[in-house]
């Protein structure tokens, strides 16, 4: 017996055909760092679950998880120590070992017995291998095994030519290491170094030998350049049962974008009937793509949805459009519009474009064909509850001008009523156009001067219209030390109007009550007043411990004094101004009204006390605060309740006590609470509590209670309970539930129940929902909708389209 020869050094481009030409699966060859090497590449670990802090409103989606896939027998010859750098192939030497080598021909090398050929990231093993040094032909036979950075492969026999990068293999089994694609074929052909072909082949991302689903095809072609596989005469088989047949079927073989069908959606709605959606993704170019989403609603007709995204130099944007011609749905008796027989559509367009230097242009256009559209076709309660669609277009700029910092914008805002239970008169004014300019100039390290300015033209049918100029210059100082701060501020506010249109209809008419404003006659009213404030605070800290854990506790008293003289503003219209909800933030603001149409009068002192617990890493584990505003003078500036009415002044000596509590003493649960108690009426104006508990890594439990009292009465305005859960029964199953109940209406606002299943290569989601989709503000009753949705994902073939994910993300705090 010929003794085993040591490793032999051969020319870099010789004997490489045995390795290079065996890349028959067409999987992309990608360089990986040593940190990415694992001992079981065909069962890749999922990327780390993106962190989602407790209390976050939206969490990142879970990555596709192949961690439940079982190890397969093809990995028995995998060597994790083999290089992961495929770029070294052309410059690396080739090493060959075998039990016997016959080189007597001087041209053809004949190797037998555990033959191993290795170069860079490539390794070929076979029982017998012949290699022609002149023609670069090769022939490997018997238990052929091949490994590279992108794949593993086995075959009974392979032959080909190195220089031509061609090869033919019999009885092929392959396993991709980058996306788990695997299958078998009667024969495989290497057409060149990027493309390969299989005949009588299968493809799946399931465990080898345990295919829940697979593609059966007469011919499968793989293209590493495009990252796409194409199957001809292809049948999709699930659980051994043929599901559908297509003459041509494409699928991804890597993580790059490619054209093809996304996960279909099947659902049922009491408003629109049975629905089937089959989105198709178009990878048009590296910097723009599109998705066509045809849907069939049995009660309404055929809808075509579409999405177009682009990213060009200096500009990025997205266009979404949905269109359903000749709606066949029955009219809804609870809405004001009959949409039967009409064309229904929805348009959403967003764009950001850099113009020049500090200037850019941004736009957001949102329009619907009618006021019922979001109720009939909204995918979730959040969408269905939207009452106004806003559109805007603005030129924005900002930067540094000498020592001053500035920003400016000019554009317009438009609003559309999409609430079928409300008249168009409730829609806010169009700001057509609007311009704003803000500047801040530091004089020294503690003193600055600046101004906030805004000019708006307000437009609305059948009511008073006009233009408004608001100027707000200020001088502010900031004195502070390590444990204290004092921030005085002196401002002056001037607001002027030029009213047009129906301005003579504005104001009060008829007999005047004591203190009531006179009928409106001035079309150029104005208001000017100074605003003086001083904000100050102290910060104390000490070391303490709680339940055996050391913390740093802070004590932070804060005082805020505000003085604004009274100005009668009954002759000023209300274009965009409302009374803001009282909370802890409002203790330290110069105005309780949004917009510039009203400026509160004030001679107030706000006092608040906050304490925090910080752990050794500086993470805030507990925060508690209490505060109140003490009024030295009456609050005389009020919003009118309507024509011929007088809103009494606020003669209370103090505001509500505002109490806030937030605690997260462990990483698994968090409690937040807000409470407002009115000492003048001895009534609770607001109470809210939210408890959130994390279950394992992807489960969550939420409970919340919300109460708000109607201002000026003893009656509640809102009282609701809300509970939701995502419960992981096992690593494969999750139960989902959400329930919102209105105590005032004595009815369920929304109920959702579902189940998610996740396995090695298949994910399933089944969701059922019952929710109120219209609301009558007079009867406090509305119509409801019941919907059922099913989504199935074949991993590696496309992702969830998100039809039900919007409902879960908006309905369940912390859903991931």
TrEMBL record:
It holds the Pfam family LptD. Residues 342-733 form the LptD C-terminal domain. Keywords: Cell outer membrane, Membrane, Signal. It is found in: Cell outer membrane. One of its GO terms (biological process) is Gram-negative-bacterium-type cell outer membrane assembly. Its main location: membrane. Residues 1-31 form the signal peptide. It comes from the Bacteria. GO terms for cellular component: cell outer membrane; transporter complex. PANTHER family: LPS-ASSEMBLY PROTEIN, LPS-ASSEMBLY PROTEIN LPTD. Belongs to the LptD family. Component of the lipopolysaccharide transport and assembly complex. Interacts with LptE and LptA. Together with LptE, is involved in the assembly of lipopolysaccharide (LPS) at the surface of the outer membrane. This is LPS-assembly protein LptD. It comes from Dyella soli. The gene is lptD.
